[in-house]
Prior knowledge:
- The chain has 319 residues and is α/β, with parallel strands linked by helices.
- It has helices at residues 11-22, 75-80, 82-103, 136-155, 188-196, 224-235, 256-267, 291-296, 305-318; strands at residues 2-6, 26-31, 46-49, 65-68, 107-113, 158-164, 166-168, 203-206, 218-219, 221-223, 243-248, 254-255, 273-276.
- Helices cover 35% and strands 18% of the residues.
- α4 links the parallel β5 and β6 (158-164).
- α1 packs across α6 (224-235), α3 (82-103) runs parallel beside α4 (136-155) and α5 runs parallel beside α7.
- Galactose-uridine-5'-diphosphate binds next to α5 and β8.
- It catalyses: UDP-alpha-D-glucose = UDP-alpha-D-galactose.
Amino acid sequence: MKLLVTGGAGYIGSVVTALLLADGHDVVVLDDLSTGHADAVPAGAELVRARVHDAADVLDPSFDAVLHFAAKSLVGESVARPELYWENNVVGSLALLDAMRGAGVRRLVFSSTAATYGEPDTMPITEDTPPRPTNPYGMTKLTVDMAIAAECAAHELGAFSLRYFNVAGAHLGGAVPLGERHDPETHLIPNLLKVATGENPEAKLFGSDYPTRDGTCVRDYIHVTDLADAHVRALTRITPGRHEICNLGSGSGFTVREVLAAVRAVTGHPIPAADHPRRPGDPPTLIASNARARELLEWTPVRDITAMAADAWAFAQKA
Ligand SMILES: NC(=O)c1ccc[n+]([C@@H]2O[C@H](COP(=O)([O-])OP(=O)(O)OC[C@H]3O[C@@H](n4cnc5c(N)ncnc54)[C@H](O)[C@@H]3O)[C@@H](O)[C@H]2O)c1
Ligand SMILES: O=c1ccn([C@@H]2O[C@H](COP(=O)(O)OP(=O)(O)O[C@H]3O[C@H](CO)[C@H](O)[C@H](O)[C@H]3O)[C@@H](O)[C@H]2O)c(=O)[nH]1
């Protein structure tokens, strides 16, 4: 297939691009490099440096499908500057849907998020859990999910909205290792590794009084290679006129302290860590039901938290 990957210079989009190329697809990456890196675009893909808002300049009827990763995704920034998120994530995605309709490209895989659910009381979270996002980032992603659903119903688009839980690890199976290079880095595992590499003296653990087994937040971590594999599967299972929402998580939860223990074990570094106040907006527990993804995508995540920590560590040492 000939594919457009928006955000293909970012963490997850670059890994999916690598898997798509390995499967023999032709890939054009559309990325404005606002948070991505040109050298993360795997060799063999063409990089067009442009905003997703200008997708109409790139898309033509020769494309078979679009995988849409391009977005801003920092929860705290979205609270401080919501207008950036509505303009980038919603206006940009609506322009992409227009461009796809104009070019007759009718297959889409979209990066949605667990943040669309907010803070549900019942675990695990299924796709039928009512979405109640608690920050503008989650609101923009839910808005795009709804725009895609309406587009599918009205104009025979076929689409998957894949709701990622906590993506972690690095993809080491390609020519070049691909991993997280966010700046600022807010995610737990890369921040713990910055202590092991000597970049930071001590890790910060946000919140020790949550109603969880050790007082720290529980999250569902999913390896980026397993996540990318789900996208390749989704691409071949799109049905015109249908919009499917699938959670992508492991189905198990780990506390912040359990992740710290896994990172200490793989690095052999003591990683000193200090308790800090809660980070505003962090729900105590988020765990996915991945039953729908297992059924619709015939997908099984195979890489555990130790593999995520080990691969992220290998990447941090090479980067
Ligand atoms: N990393 C996670 O744990 C996680 C969890 C849930 C959902 N997601 C979603 O997955 C997607 C990828 O996340 P990531 O962690 O790889 O982020 P990232 O910041 O590494 O990648 C995003 C890419 O999109 C590009 N981009 C942003 N706005 C653009 C625009 N208007 N036009 C063109 N390019 C643009 C950036 O330059 C970057 O290369 C995002 O949509 C994010 O919301 C990520
Ligand atoms: O240095 C750090 C970084 C994080 N944490 C804690 O580790 C847990 C995980 O935090 P991350 O920032 O790694 O991930 P989030 O769960 O906040 O965010 C993820 O889930 C969100 C949905 O709730 C969004 O989808 C977002 O894009 C995605 O990265 C949280 O309890 C957080 O407080 C720390 O203690 N110290």
